[in-house]
Amino acid sequence: MFLPLHDGLALRHxxxxxxxxxxxxxxxxxxxxxxxxxxxxxxxxDVGLGLxxxxxxxxAVVSPELAVVPSFLTPVTSMFLHGGFFHLAGNLMFLxxxxxxxxxxxxxxxxxAFYLVCGVCAGLTYVYMFPDSRNPLIGASGAISGVAxxxxxxxxRSRVFGLLxxxxxxxxxxxSLIGLWVAYQIYFAxxxxxxxxxxxxxxxxxxxxxxxxxxxxxxxxxxxxxxDKPENEPDDKGQNAA
Length: 242
Description:
Blueprint lengths: L1 E6 L10 H18 L6 H8 L3 H4 L17 H4 L7 H22 L1 H22 L11 H14 L4 E6 L3 E6 H18 L7 H18 L26
Helix pairs in contact: 1-5, 5-6, 5-7, 6-7, 6-9, 7-8, 7-9, 8-9
């Protein structure tokens, strides 16, 4: 319901958001390899590397010929799989727009750990809510939900440009746009939305991001810029399933 395209925040502590870039590249490379069949049939990849709640809770097992990694690693490996181009693109747009500034507030290693922990917490939230599910959960949305929540708390007045309902241009403070997106995720987690989307993974990621931010934040963000800038003043930077 909201696709971010650009924000106006320059990096203040880091020269480059290396971890954000590496995560984007890794997701694209793995998706390309899966699409090309290098990793084997998609169904096998999803079962072998996806997060299956019933397997985690011990109510089911993956047959040996499909298992790729031990089940306890799938909360991590599932974060790097996507169900299609638009699933991948939506997730990576969120990461590209918001990840660099969150990384800037944490530092490279802290951000890498934060991203992974948020993703794992998101996956385990989904397992808790659907312990008998045998459908693989894939996607980076849980981790990225944590990143979005951290960005919202760090930079609530940052002006974000994006597409409401994925097609209506809008530019507003992040507290409005990301806040609306957060409310949307949590509402459908409780109300029940499209069964193909891991709403509870999104909600778990959001909660993890908000709770863990004080632990991982290294630098305090700079004072917020005015919400409205003079028309002749340029921005600093040009630029959704779990």
